[in-house]
Write a structure and sequence with these properties.
Strands 3-2-1-6-9-11-12 form a 7-stranded mixed beta sheet. The protein has a 3-stranded mixed beta sheet with strand order 8-7-10, with no helix packed on it. A two-stranded antiparallel sheet has the order 4-5. The chain is globular. It is an alpha/beta fold. Helix 1 (about 5-20) packs parallel to helix 3. The chain has 4 helices and 12 strands, in the order H-H-E-H-E-E-E-E-E-E-E-H-E-E-E-E. The N and C termini lie far apart (about 35 Å). It has helices spanning about 5-20, 25-30, 45-55, 130-140; strands spanning about 30-35, 60-65, 70-75, 80-85, 90-95, 110-115, 115-120, 125, 145-150, 155-160, 170-175, 180.
Length: about 190
């Protein structure tokens, strides 16, 4: 489905996603949000990143490490991003500033997770690299309990995705048409 979207479609959906996400109480009250910069036809995040930053939230963005783990840097606006190609993978936009270390994510009140789908149980299907599985495991080890939110297109909320023992459900999915909650926050 994503491959059929035009650039205009992606921009239109991005605006709707930002509007829906900004209405989440978890994001409205968050001081620190770990997010990501969407690429290609992924559900757009840039409008939301700028809105969060404009209201004073600290926005952390991932930096892909050689072992597929994630370091973090602070988002300082569109000019603070640099395009980085990791091997034969798609080029990513990453923060150009100081690296904060992989544990920086544990300070987040909300973690926005990328994904390909989420199911009726709140289980997220990622892209298969394991980067965010490591993030979620790190949060567990450190006793951090941020709200976990996935941004997707409406057609990517499905009945069932494969899940393994280490997978854990997200709290909510935001799509252009609305929000769906899966499990209660602490």
């Amino acid at each position: 489905m994503r491959s059929r979207l035009t650039a205009d479609d992606v921009r239109e959906y991005e605006a709707a996603l930002a509007e829906r996400a900004e209405g989440l109480p978890e994001l409205a009250g968050a001081r620190t949000v770990a997010a990501y910069v969407s690429v290609g036809s992924e559900p757009g995040t840039r409008a939301l990143l700028d809105a969060l930053r404009a209201r004073g939230a600290r926005v952390l963005l991932p930096v892909l490490l050689p072992d597929n783990d994630l370091d973090w840097g602070e988002y300082g606006g569109p000019d603070s991003l640099t395009r980085v190609r990791h091997g034969g993978k798609m080029a990513l936009l990453e923060p150009a500033g100081v690296r904060l270390g992989p544990d920086a994510v544990t300070a987040a009140d909300v973690v926005l997770l990328p994904g390909l789908a989420v199911d009726a149980r709140g289980m997220r299907l990622g892209r298969g690299g394991g980067s965010y599985d490591r993030v979620l495991a790190r949060l567990d080890r450190k006793g951090a309990h941020p709200a976990l939110v996935v941004l997707l297109y409406d057609t990517e909320v499905v009945e069932r995705v494969p899940a393994q023992a280490h997978d854990r459900p997200v709290h909510a999915v935001v799509t252009p048409s609305g929000v769906r909650r899966f499990c209660a926050r602490m």
